[in-house]
Amino acid sequence: LRFWPGHISAGNLSRTVAPGACVAPRPCAAGALAVAIVLRGETFRWGCDAFGVAKQRQAAAAYDAMLASPLERRGHCVHLVLAIDRGCPSLDAALVAMHGDRVALAQRIRTEKQPANARAALDLLLSRAEMASRYDMVILARHDVQLLSPLDRWACALAQPRFSPSVLSVGSRCDPRAWRSFNCSSDLFYAVPPEPQPEPEPNPNPNP
User: Fold this and answer.
1) What confidence tens digit (pLDDT) does each residue in 148-176 have?
2) Cβ proximity of 147 and 66 under 8 Å
3) What pLDDT was estimated at residue 205?
């Protein structure tokens, strides 16, 4: 992963949210595991000029080459949900075009703190029952992260040929000092099932 830091201010989630742009993404083949990649965070945080657009396109191309295309080559279906925060409103259409016909939803949100941003981005998907029910796995990632290695080199459950929809994967190793202090956190990349998995039913007769 490559993360380009930028300014992140403090505050709370704005209640003013622009209407979403629902589009028809490429169809999923029958029997394919369906994956929703929810991209969140500030867009075009390197600027609205040619340099900033090139950086955003570089990050989008890496999601295609390193994650979406490898998943599709394994027979899975991949759609994107774009939670667009701050950045350059005049370039929203260009951002959607960078991700092509995988985009199922693009909507502007306004947040200041990271937890609120992640919550608002997930809510774009989870608040739409007809969309959330489509997917076997939800990947929460950031617009300003560039993937550097292809999926087949990842050491996680998502990289398996037929991944388990019940396994959570976190795309960042915890710093040893943070691990020892029980303060390990990362907001760069998560792969999670869209709904909690039910607990197995206890056996009413332990000695059949």
Assistant:
1) 999 999 888 888 888 887 887 777 767 77
2) yes
3) 52
For residue 55 the two structure tokens come to: 């950086």
Contact between residue 40 and residue 117 where contact means Cβ atoms under 8 Å apart? yes
Do 96 and 106 meet the contact criterion of CB atoms below 8 Å apart? yes
pTM score: 0.79
Q: Beta partners for 140?
A: 38, 190
Q: Which two tokens stand for residue 57?
A: 């396109």
3-state SS of the chain is CEECCCCCCCCCCCCCCCCCEECCCCCCCCCCCEEEEEEECECCCCCCCHHHHHHHHHHHHHHHHHHHHHHHHCCCEEEEEEEEECCCHHHHHHHHHHHHHHEEEEEEECCCCHHHHHHHHHHHHHCCHHHHCCCCEEEEEECCEECCCCHHHCCCHHHCCCCCCCCCEECCCCCHHHHHCCCCCCCCEEEECCCCCCCCCCCCCCCC
Mean per-residue pLDDT for 13-26?
51
pLDDT over 90 (residue 40):
yes
Given this model, what pLDDT does residue 78 score?
A: 96
Nearest alpha carbon to residue 63 among 124, 3, 150 = 150
**CA-based torsion, 85, 78, 164, 162: positive or negative:** negative
- Both tokens of 128, joined, read 């739409």
Dump pLDDT digits (tens) for 92-130: 999 999 999 999 999 999 988 888 998 999 999 888 888
